[in-house]
Amino acid sequence: MKNISFGLLISLLVISLTSCLKDTCENVYTYQRYDPVFVKPEILRQKIAATSSKELVTTGKIYVYGDYLLINEPDLGIHVVDNKIPANPRFISFIKIPGNSDLAVRNGLLYVDSYVDLVVLDLKNPQDVKELYRVENAFPSYGKDEKLGLLVAYKPAGVTETFPCSENSGNSFFDGNVIWSRESSLTSGLKTPSGTVGIGGSTARFTMNQGFLYTVTTSNLTAFKLEDSGITKQVSTQNVGWNIETIYPFEGLLFIGSQTGMYIYGIDNPEKPALLSTFEHWRACDPVVSDGKTAFVTLRDGTECEGFLNQLDVINVSDVRKPKLIKSYSLHHPIGLSINQGLLFICEDDKGIKLFDTKDLNAIDKNLIYQDKSFSAVDIIVLEEAKIAIITGEDGIWQFNYKNPAKWELLSNIKSKTND
Amino acid sequence: MTKKGLCFHFFLLIILPFFLRSQDIGAPLPVVKSNYLTGQFSMGYGFYLNGGDLFSPGFEFKAGKFLSKNLSWGGGIAYTQFKPLDGFYGISLLSELRYFLREESKNWRFSGVADLGVGIGGSRLQSGWATYKPGPRIYTGIAVYKKLDDKIRLMLELGYLYQYLSYKDNTPGRGWQFFQTESILKYNFRRIQLKTGVFF
Questions:
Q1: Shortest Cα–Cα distance, A5 to chain B (Å)
Q2: Which of A18, A25, A173, A218 to mutate to test the interface with B (most CBs of B within 10 A)?
Q3: Which of residues 27-66 of B touch A (CB under 8 A)?
Q4: Which of residues 155-174 of B touch A (CB under 8 A)?
């Protein structure tokens, strides 16, 4: 009887304490939420003009045109820097361009993106830049809202939220919206196509060839026919795949880097580039450069690229229709790169810059000429004649003289405010 | 619990404490002992997050010192399987204060205990992919002891345990890795616990 009473007592105790016996769990998620950015057409399409120079806050893509160094301030505009004396670069103006991330120059005309539009600016007087022409809706938008305007971008915002473990979390930002990253693209300094066209890095999404501007979005390759008057005509757009990142020109070829492979397009018909071949690789971010015989592709991991590779792929493209992997080399988070007269420059993010001799494509790793780990390096433009390497990184822009490839001389450092 | 687990518990609770008896330097009962050692098997009972009850097996080893006839102070280690199916367990260091009531003539003894501790979680399923952080543990209970011989007593204890454990899930490729950068899970475990064991 006593045992039964004890059992009952325990049962009653358990029942009465049910809420005190229940486990609870919270999941604290930190994630990137992409907030839509709407711009009203009348604001988006205000005339673009140069303003007085301002401090560099965040380093975007860079472009060299003559004595000028153009530095993109992501989504805000372009700094014009007089770089006649690389040891003493001077900021001379700032061109305010909403939603700008890419640029290219030809015959004194600056071609830029402004969210969904392609805008042609007269750069002949960098202190008095004027808008000449605009191709509206040249690039895809994400949608339109009658009241809010054009949905032009998604801005990442770090968010921390707490959910009960029993609930699914972090899905609110999927709500039917497409996520598109405008980031990534570097261009590389090879031989410049001509004196009238500038040089971009290996991460560029704009490139020029023979009076045509070629641009890539995440899935499309678009060709624009250019006129010296500034009038620009969109002549073709074609789908080239998913997650396209960069475009690089070389002697009648366009090398397009995507997160899953490299595409080679021929431009015998410049109005409509034709796919010649594809070289596939594991998913990773991948800028590409080439000297015509060999293509160099850097693959890197990261949340945006999802992959896990960090390497350099060396690909034989002497037969552009049959690219063939020569060898892969392991590297530390390689991003932008440049090939110039057998010298291969590779930016290794927080591990700085490396310079290799490519005389033996099967032993590039054995031929490291120079390395500098003292700064972060994202992209590079090499000025062949002056032997100057212009390198962008998180902290700003560095200019080196590499006349002696084994011993670089620092010419100048433009610091960005973000990392002061 | 698996047969292997039962054998393991038996070894820890019975065999090992038996060999530890030599450490009992206290005077024989009914004289107050200066020290004690105890090995306990615990069975917790509670309700899981989405409903449904579960048992949380575990064991404890403790050693202590009598501060007076009625009061002891000790400490030890506890192992508790909070989510047996997921293999999520906690290992805690604890200190306990016991108050004793004695009825030595009838070979009974009673105690009330409160322990405070700090524990850290672990998981067999996710080991290597999570970063665990220590969290507090609070336990209170009452125990009854039955004298087996001059030195050994069998004990039965009923108590209530609260323990907080958290970990950062480092598992890669969890769905939308593109967006999610961090996930920290914070558990509040609450159990009514029944403990059996021997007290030397």
A1: 16
A2: A25
A3: 45-50
A4: 158, 160
DSSP A380-411: EEEETTTTEEEEEETTEEEEEE-SSTTS-EEE
Token duo for residue A65: 């045109």
Tell whether pTM > 0.90. Answer: no
Asked if B47 and A13 come within 8 Å (Cβ–Cβ), the reply is: no
ipTM of the complex: 0.76
Nearest CA in chain B to A305: B178
**Residue with tokens 């100057």, as numbered in its chain:** A388
Contact A25 B185 (CB under 8 A): yes
Burial of B126 (C-beta count, 10 Å sphere; 0-12/13-18/19+): middle
Share of chain A above pLDDT 90, in %: 42
Torsion of CA A212, A218, A220, A221, to 10 degrees: 20
Distance separating alpha carbons of residues A161 and A80, to the nearest angstrom: 41
Q: Which residues pair with A164 in a beta bridge?
A: A26
- Pairwise CA distance, residues A365 & A359, whole Å: 11
The closest alpha carbon to A380, from A298, A305, A313, belongs to: A298
How far is the C-alpha of A141 from the C-alpha of A37, rounded, in Å? 11
Nearest to B185 among A14, A31, A165 (CB): A165
Cα radius of gyration rounded to whole Å, chain A: 26
- What is the DSSP code string of B24-68? --SPPTTSPPSEEEEEEEEEEEEE-TTS-EEEEEEEEEEEEEESS
Q: What is the pLDDT of residues B115-136, one digit of tens each?
A: 888 888 877 555 456 788 899 9
